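S2.1 Query sequence (Lysine--tRNA ligase)
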Amino acid sequence: MPKENQHQEQPQQLSLNDQMQRRHEERRHLAESGVNPYPCAFDVTACSTDIITSFQDEQREQVSIAGRIMTIRKMGKASFFHIQDSKGRIQVYMKKDDVGETTYSTFKLLDIGDIVGVKGFTFRTKTGEISVHAETFELLSKSLRPIPVAKEKDIDGQKVIYDAFSDKELRYRQRYVDLIVNPEVRETFIKRSAIVTFMRQFFTGKGWLEVETPILQPIYGGAAARPFTTHHNALDMQLYLRIANELYLKRLIVGGFDGVFEFAKDFRNEGIDRFHNPEFTQVELYVAYKDYNWMMELVEELLYRTALSVNGTHTTSFLGNDISLEPPFRRLTIVDAIKEYCNVDVSDKSENELRSAAKDLGLELDPKIGSGKIIDEIFGEFVEPKLIQPTFITDYPTEMSPLAKEHRSKPGFVERFELIAGGKELCNSFSELNDPVIQRERLESQAKLRLRGDEEAMVVDEDFLRALEYGMPPCAGLGIGIDRVVMLITGQESIRDVIFFPHLKPE
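Output structure tokens follow.
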């Protein structure tokens, strides 16, 4: 390994507390010698990757860069170190004769993890590495806690990595360290931002309005889920964190907007697993005068173009499967899906018959749930995990979808679809129910299920019903789970890998 690519390893004989104590002593010594370990600002004119990609051997470009020291090799009168900025890494070469004895003495008190600023010119070392020759140097932030630097060793021609920061739970708890030492994690979140940006531009490009609706709600609704509750002291009233923003967005369609959407943080008081986090992000869209058939085509276009924009291809690798987002997606009714995968016809069965069918399949059910939930449990357990390629599951029983319009040709069913890909739901859509009389009947039926003990059944929202009584045009609605779409497009296996700070048990 070239000398300038070696780094000074943290002394293994020192405990974490010893290393921190040494860094505190260095900080104190710096301050006593007149060096501010935490100055206010530094003028940055270039980043690592731009310097490397634009480098020309015949030119010496003056640059001012800043970043965190990730490798360091201190020598007598000259030293090499690598700094990492938001884009990547670059090597810096420093000579005592260039920066002065006082500055070089300051450098001698620095460690891996410290943040520094460097001004100088670009050049290529004898070993061919594009680097910055420091002319001035400044400490910008002294790191008091050592970062976990992975060590590499070549064994029989194979690169072996030791002491990598790889413990999943520790990475989630200390995402800031995860981002420092695992650059690939940054790429996932950069892609997440690109996905949201593309979707936002896609919707606004269609002429639809981005809006904001309440997070604190006096009555929660729009989904089958348990809410988080809180209390407003001044009004002395109980409020709920929203589980969905559907009912407020449909109020805006009543008010005369033709298309509205919202990227929303929603909150559901439910379990945590690879696909669920209590706080999650979804985008909901409502477009007047459209139905769920039109919305299926829109979703195909949206996901196909999003994948192309972010990955440059419509295919992605997820949980060991190559998945194509190229339209058209397969379409299958929920009844036909259960028939295909379970050999059970649920279309005309009573609640007791459905319970018996579920028992025959080996499924244990909560006695408080009704027919719709039973069908949902059968589908979720035996069908959904097997749908790897994008599949629209359509035409749900009415009880499963109290906010969806009755199917125009299938009594007892509604015009609804869910898109399943990679074995999990990505989005949900209805031809929205706009008959206030039927909507009241549906919500009152949900209230009866709540009395039976179904805590996820919907509640009656009188203000929403009043809005419908003023008249809502035919409307198509859509909710897309942003976290799950990001998982699919970036190939991440857990929702915790696409949320910066996922919820965890207390340490």
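The domain at 3-164 is CATH 2.40.50.140 (OB fold (Dihydrolipoamide Acetyltransferase, E2P)). The CA atoms of residues 24 and 144 lie 6 Å apart.
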